[in-house]
Amino acid sequence: MPRLQKNDNFIDKTFTILADIVLKVLPTSKEEKEAFYYYRDGMSAQSEGEYAEALENYYEALQIEEDPYDRSYILYNIGLIYASNGEHIKALEYYHQALELNANLPQALNNIAVIYHYQGIKATKNKRLHTSKEMFTKAAKYWEQAIVLAPNNYIEAQNWLKTTGRKYSIS
To answer: Is the dihedral of CA 152, 110, 98, 20 positive or negative?
Structure first.
């Protein structure tokens, strides 16, 4: 099952070795180990731009993984792949599923906001001002939530909220 890793850098190799050691030492079930191997192989494939292979591994991991916290990160990574492929609706679905399992994922909230912001810009260019306002309002809502969870991150989003006058609930 382990993926052949072609161009691993030092950090990737170190992570893989340490993860394998931890899995051998910790009292985890065969299923938990198998789910982790699929997840790790998915991350490796994703980092190399092998998105189809990454998705296969993530979907396998989802079939096995039962822990909601771990499932949230698998769903988040699936969302990343769909977003990077321009499939924003699918990406939003997976980000929302991840948040249902783990509300403390500021990166998912940020990515949702980025998609809505992008849709707002597109709507503005197409002179659909009502739609653009709705998309920007949604972007603001999600960025505010992300900033509450990670106040030192998303500086550009914080600046956008301030300069557009949309910052209304962050103190």
So the answer is: negative
